[in-house]
């Protein structure tokens, strides 16, 4: 064999070996990819706008992490906690669940949520760009059970163009409950038939705010009983709504009850009311989207001589199920959701003001009109806020349902007096809290 052919033969042999090795490596890599396949389930509540944005972020994450598949489950607020309770009872909670502050203690207390501290320590969950004030709400007994995915504050939404049309001065920070009633009545009188001043609030969220203004809270410190002693507080709070319904300042229940908690169907969307009470600031995005026009956020009414009622609230959390076999991978997705600027450009602070500093500054600089209003409102609310109260105790979900079904709705329809509602609520709520301890 000539020297030339010797080299050619050697080259061909080496090429074959390289191809074989490459094929082997490729097969090995395929095997590794296959063995590392991760399947996660994720559950959240919200509007259609939230669903669309979240699904797009999930697609982005799966594109960047092709070994991960995330199955989405989502619904409106109505029925969400019933669905969660059913899944929890069956030992079938999704890996990642959207959690609310008022339910956090209950789910953590039942051992249903994973402590995420180990994933902070391993860097699977990166909260290095997050201030403690945004983290603390998810901690119970030194365990991190939930990651805040957007800060917000209790608010009302107003259509200032309707105020102007009615010749009514807009609401300003510091306005009182009496001023709300007066302006809502004037709006109803001046805006024509079947248009009303206010979509009223008589729910537990508004009552909690009213109690804070009296320096009290719905629950006692140990969560075994109601935290306020004087039922006149609930009577007075409900009487505000009764007065507005009777005077025509508030829309009758058949105007707003069909919408339930679907903000995109609130009567303000169709210019049937100029005000909607008791929403969270992050909901402005979905309400404006549904209305197709500019709306504004405003503080809740103040109590003359009272305490500050507002606080900065973890809008929603993500928690990881204790039963999940993929806790670390779930933590990695939450980390992405928190820190990715590209993901948060898609989300557009729809769940509330982002907690990561770099993300927050980026979005504020590039915010849409609705996003800018939300950022500015949270800053305003912070000026009128004091410390957040502890998470609601176990049994709070039953208390919420009790309040909605036997206080709020009967008041809307005039089926009970405020005194009857307050007395009934105390009796039944006390029984629930005592039983659940």
TrEMBL record:
Gene3D superfamilies, per the entry: Periplasmic binding protein-like II
InterPro entries linked to this entry: Bact_solute-bd_prot1, SBP
Domain of life: Bacteria
Pfam families: SBP_bac_1 (PF01547)
Tagged with keyword Signal: yes
Keyword Zinc tagged: no
Annotated keywords: Signal
Signal peptide (UniProt feature, chain positions): 1-27
Name the record gives this protein: Carbohydrate ABC transporter substrate-binding protein, CUT1 family
Organism, scientific name: Gracilibacillus orientalis
Lineage, opening ranks: Bacteria, Bacillati, Bacillota, Bacilli, Bacillales
